[in-house]
Amino acid sequence: MGNLNPSLDHESRFRKNTKRTYFQEIWKGIKKTKYLQFMILPGIIYYIIFHYVPMYGIIIAFKDFKLGLGILGSEWVGFENFMRFFSHPHFGRLVKNTLLLNIYGLLWSFPAPIILALFLNEIRNLTYKKVVQTVSYLPHFISTVSVVGILFMILSPQGGFVNHILKDVFHVEPIYFMAESEWFRTIFIASGIWQNIGWDAIIYIASLTSINNELYEAATIDGATRWKRMLHVSIPGIMPTISIMLILRIGSMMSSSTDKVLLMQLPITYEVSDIIGTYVYRRGLVMAEYSFSTAVDLFNAVINVLLIITANSVSGRISENSLW
Fold first, then answer.
1. Does domain 79-318 correspond to CATH entry 1.10.3720.10?
2. pLDDT digits (tens, 9 = 90+) for 183-239
3. Residue spans of beta strands (DSSP E) within the chain
4. What does the alpha-carbon distance between residue 141 and residue 137 come to, in Å, rounded to a whole number?
5. Domain ranges of the chain
6. pTM, full prediction
């Protein structure tokens, strides 16, 4: 019996041919760029081994993990570890400290490299510009351990040059800044700006170089001052980059530089310095509560994912700039 609907058969053959042509084009493209494909292969392998394969271990957040029994042999406890964390007396403090550090960082650290990039873009002396840019991003290459060590030295109540100035110039008694809770966040944010402002400014400087010079020339002809050109040409020109970086920053609002906080904090400053990252470190590596610490970290990651999705959606609606 023949085909009752020849048009459907023709459409089916057309789709198959289209798919075949599509995959052939992809394969041709891969063959044409085979050497580039080999270059990115190590990066792909790295992410698969160290970022995707370990995701299997997330299931211990829902188990009472025992090293002797292994992941599969350990008993399922469902959301018990999460409930333990939510009912923990320090839950509110941990979330508050984590959010405050990131909110202050967003208010102060995020605009700093943008401002530096805009000012550097206005400098006409290329030698001076290169020197300033180099000096500003060099601290990025200093290890976090060294940065915290420098902070302890210069802020020390015995021999620290900051306390020397306070005592000799302002006649103020020495202050142990690193042991004062009210100074912790200020020191953390200020040292972070010093360490990363130059490095973070690089992407904005690159974005500024892509702005058409004719826009600046037209603004100059219209009588715009340097400030006006910066306000109406430079900032709108890098706004897509600012939007993307802001989305990424919001997506890490529940994450902080755990290593730096861990090095800076003292038991006396736990009230303001204890964040989710340091709590996970103590419960996981020090107290060997692997299931509980994994549950806490998983909760943190889920909140970050929700934040980045929300920020991306809002940015897409307001400015039409988004990650996807």
1. yes
2. 999 999 999 999 999 999 999 999 999 999 999 999 999 898 989 999 999 999 999
3. 63-66, 74-76
4. 8
5. 6-75, 79-318
6. 0.84
